[in-house]
Design goal:
alpha+beta, 44% helix, elongated, 2 domains, 4-stranded antiparallel beta sheet, single chain
Length: 108
Amino acid sequence: MKPQTKILIVVLAVMIAGLIISRFLSSETELLPIKDEAGAIAYAKTDTAVKEFIARWTNKGFEIKSWAKFENTVWTVVFYPDKVMDVAFDIEFDSNGRILKKGEMEGG
């Protein structure tokens, strides 16, 4: 194989990898900075643990409800299965998306 061909292949591979990485990251970064409740909920849904919580309860047949509030520079978003009183997922982050706390809550 000619050296020019090898260089072309490497350049194309780097370009493709860059496109894949930017596509992967863009869905999350397009949501920043968080400006309102809808944006906070949309951003929270990009978190893997939130996705797993939603999938687990949706697969059990429950509709997932959510709410968000902004207080003292922190967004709090809570997801919970409708008609289930003692289970929720809480995630807190700043307007730039830095997660401060997250986890599933049970009991009540």
